[in-house]
Amino acid sequence: MSKLSQCLKIIALLQTRQMLSTKEIAEILDITPRNVKAYIEYLKKAGIPIYGMPGRAGGYYLGNEYYFEIPKLDEGEYSALMLAEKLLNFKSGFPLANELQTAVAKIRCALGDTVNNVFPIPTDELMLSLGKVDLKDNLDKVLTTIYMAIKQRRRIRVLYYTASRDERKRREIDPYAVIYREGSWYLIGYCHLRKKIRTFKLVRIEDIEILDSAFTYPLDFSVKEYMSNIFSVIEGEEYDVEIRFFHPASIWVKEKRWLPNQRIEELKDGSIIFKARVKGLIDIKRWVLSFGKLAVVRKPEELVESIRNEIEAMEYLYGEWHCKQEQTSGMVHPHEEK
Hints:
Layout: H1 3-14, H2 22-29, H3 33-45, E1 50-53, E2 59-62, H4 75-89, H5 97-111, H6 139-152, E3 154-162, E4 167-181, E5 184-191, E6 196-201, E7 205-214, H7 223-227, E8 238-245, H8 249-254, E9 263-266, E10 272-279, H9 282-290, E11 295-299, H10 301-318, H11 320-327
Antiparallel strand pairs: 1-2, 3-4, 3-7, 4-5, 5-6, 8-10, 8-11, 9-10
């Protein structure tokens, strides 16, 4: 792609009034960070008011006094936009689906005839259910409120339900980011109750308000690094894990990258040894149990013991307790409070 074309794309990205780092621009445009810096300098020399903010949360941004009418979308860009809209709206649980549809409709009207019949892929043939989604009537309000608080760098107060303890508590949180994983939306932020960075499931936020208190985004915090070794969502202490997967689970595991630091050792019998360093054991325990007899944990011992206890409890449920339950109606589940 030409130098001019890349420069125009950088202006388009910065003209959204968001701050982007060299690395982020490089990833979006699929170029090197060195090229990004060279293009930025070229634009500055051309009189484009691009400014930089140093630090971990810094980056480049465009001066408010500048505006450039960006060239209209080409076929590939328009196709990508339409497909993204379909993916987000088709059973994905995206809480702002209606707002997205009207926004895309406005874009199509603004572009007019220039994008008629340019989408080459029949999107209905590509759409598949994206799995389980959260059910919450006010999820769109919660997500929108959090987004506004993040942009304004304002603290929020929420009424949060903790399922594991069956309790509701008011918490004040500095919202850093919102992520979407496995059909659910989560907030990452500093919890003033726990005095540490925590992850909150949006569907469990029962009430929310933006406070007047401002907060400063920590320069030493990166969402990508924070989530890098978390298997799913729930964080915790770091452990080195080793899991042996037998065929055909060994094939299924090899087909995906589950963690950025994972290593896979293939054995002669078709099984594999999955190795990784993870933050927290709750999610990876659920993952191992989902494979049944096709997976066995080798380390750490804490995970081995936790799974062993789970299996013993399941054996009791399907054995002695199940027989008694059939004979006696109204019996309390062994894990419920009497």
